[in-house]
Amino acid sequence: MAVGKSAIEESLESIRDAVRKQLGVGRPEAVDVPPDTVTRFSKDCEPSFTPERRAEFVDRAAELDPWLQGPFYLGGDLIIGGTWRCDHRWIGLGAEVSKSLAGKRVLDVGSNAGYDPFMFALRGAQEIVACEPFGYHHQAVFLESLYHSGVQFENIGWECLTNEKYGTFDLIHCNGVFYHEPNPMGLLMRLRSMLAPDGELLFGSMMLGEPEQSEYVRFIPGSYFGDETWWFVPGRLAMRWMLEVTGFRVAYSFGEWPGPAGEFPVVNGYFRATGVDPAPHLDPVRGSQLLA
Ligand SMILES: C[S@@+](CC[C@H](N)C(=O)[O-])C[C@H]1O[C@@H](n2cnc3c(N)ncnc32)[C@H](O)[C@@H]1O
Hints:
The chain is of the alpha/beta class.
């Protein structure tokens, strides 16, 4: 079903309101970096623009504000996004992803504007499915119309991922979704069910910064740093335990960096894991009800 323009505008307007609460602006400026330092997701980008063509790109990008992921190169001298500096996150993450993903099926959960799926495409993944339920999806679709990477962008949440429709994946990447999720164990169980037998999970979440709170999960009844979509923030050990009971063997953690300076200290960090059996007392009947 085609999505009408007003539906896209409406979905982005509500995101602009949320971003305004956190950052004070609904349309954050692109980061100021030299275009020749920005990762090229495609050889198809035009190296220079006529003034009219440039204005067309600027208008289209503005329609799709707010851009948080990035920086993304559009062509000529144009860059969009980068509030989140995904290129900096990939300095650590890139070392954990095989240089060649040839023959691999990759799933990205909570893909936002598509930075991570585009990176997996650069590494030659055979097939990439990216799921994002909110208006950011339209940013990814716009970028894909320039990059032609072949990523399958789906405007869905993790709840809609099923083996029947999408199969299983050799690599699953999910960063920054867990603490926004009212049903965090359901998310982990679904990720487990989407993992191929020899598959790997790269899982990142915001976590409690204080080491002495490592075993705890903190519930957020209101908001964190102006963001009302934070629910459960785990300590580092609690996060590892939750992964383990839902059927992951954690090899190690990596790539820790400070989170937003909100009401209590948080850090973002990644876990690398493979699949094992979930805990036997994680009732499979109740589990499958959660997954239904
Ligand atoms: C903090 S951002 C992280 C984006 C990206 N993974 C990254 O690391 O830059 C969380 C993303 O998860 C998306 N999201 C929220 N609920 C989701 C759900 N139920 N399923 C999948 N993604 C979801 C949000 O819209 C947002 O794009």
